[in-house]
Design goal:
Blueprint (H helix, E strand, L loop, with lengths): L1 H5 L4 H17 L4 E10 L2 H10 L6 E6 L5 E10 L2 H11 L6 E2 L1
Antiparallel strand pairs: 1-3, 1-4, 2-3
C-alpha cells in the first residue's frame, strides 16, 4: 500500500517513512501494540475521520482538548500486524486537514 502513496510524497516524507519502517522492524516483534499520537484542530468531523480510520480494529482511543479548546490530542492504542501496517495507517490519516503526527 505504501507504494501507491510514494508518488504523492516528497523525498523527505518518503525517507521518514523508510526510517520509521526500519526502526519498527528492528525493534518490535509483530503483531504488537502500537500507540499513535496526533494533534489536530478541535473539529468534530476531522476527529471522527481519525476515529473511523481505526474503527473495528479494537483500538482504544482517547482525546483531550487543549486549554483554549482550539486543538485536540488524539491517542490511539491498537494492535498492528506489522511495521508496514503502522505506516499505512499514518499515510491513511495524513490527508485529514490539520492533523499532525507525533
Amino acid at each position: 500500500m505504501l507504494f501507491q502513496y510514494e508518488m504523492m510524497m516528497d523525498k523527505k516524507t518518503e525517507d521518514f517513512y523508510a526510517r520509521l519502517k526500519e526502526e519498527l522492524t528492528n525493534s518490535t516483534l509483530w503483531p504488537s501494540e502500537y500507540l499513535y499520537k496526533f494533534i489536530m484542530p478541535s473539529d468534530v468531523h476531522s476527529i471522527a475521520k481519525v476515529e473511523a480510520a481505526f474503527n473495528d480494529m479494537g483500538a482504544v482511543i482517547t482525546t483531550q482538548q487543549s486549554k483554549t479548546g482550539k486543538f485536540t490530542s488524539v491517542s490511539i492504542s491498537v494492535t498492528m500486524a506489522s511495521a508496514q501496517s503502522v505506516i499505512d495507517k499514518y499515510i491513511e490519516v495524513s490527508d485529514i486537514e490539520g492533523i499532525i503526527s507525533l
